[in-house]
Amino acid sequence: MPTIKVGCTVHPQQSTYEQMRETWKNVENLGADSLWTWDHFFPLYGDPEGMHFEGYSLLAAMAEVTQTIPFGMLVTCNSYRNPNLLADMARTVDHISGGRHILGIGSGWFERDYLEYGYDFKTAPDRLRDLDAAMPIIKKRLAKLNPGPVNGQIPIMIGGSGPKVTLRITAQYADLWNGGGTPEEFGAKNLILDEWCQKLDRDPQEIERTLIRNDPDVIDRAEEYVENGVTHFILAAKGPEFDLSLLRQMLEWRDARNASSS
Question: What is the pTM of this model?
Answer without folding.
Answer: 0.97
